[in-house]
């Protein structure tokens, strides 16, 4: 399905890019909203993992440090690069910038 225009090449001045509304308006979260901690909570199937991935990726691209506590292992997808042949040129550039910026570490207790 067509998801509309790609994300911006850099972090928008108005904040972290999360997508677009149904009308096409950019959906963003101000950087000032992330001063210390963020929790993503909701019912099963409500989009928590998707939102957590989007916020973490955009925060990293904006230079904000991210520590994700992920007991289910859903966020480990950050370690798997997307297939560049399935990405638009803009998406491929963002994915490459994320890989250059992120210093991903996994700690598995026990």
Describe the structure.
By secondary structure, this protein is of the alpha+beta class. The protein is built from 2 helices and 2 strands. A two-stranded antiparallel sheet has the order 1-2. A hairpin with a 5-residue loop joins strand 1 and strand 2. The mean pLDDT is 79.
Helix-strand blueprint:
Elements: E1 16-20, E2 26-29, H1 48-61, H2 89-101
List keywords for this structure.
two-stranded antiparallel sheet; 8% strand; alpha+beta
Quick rundown:
The protein has about 110 residues and is of the alpha+beta class. About 25% of the residues lie in helices and about 10% in strands. The mean pLDDT is about 80.
Q: What is the typical, i.e. mean, pLDDT?
A: 79
Give the distance, in angstroms, between the N- and C-terminal Cα atoms: 42 Å
Percent helix, as a range, is 10-25%
Count up the helices: 2
Helix/strand class? alpha+beta
Q: Ranges with pLDDT <50 over ≥5 residues?
A: none
Strand sequence of the main sheet, in spatial order?
Answer: 1-2
The coarse silhouette is globular
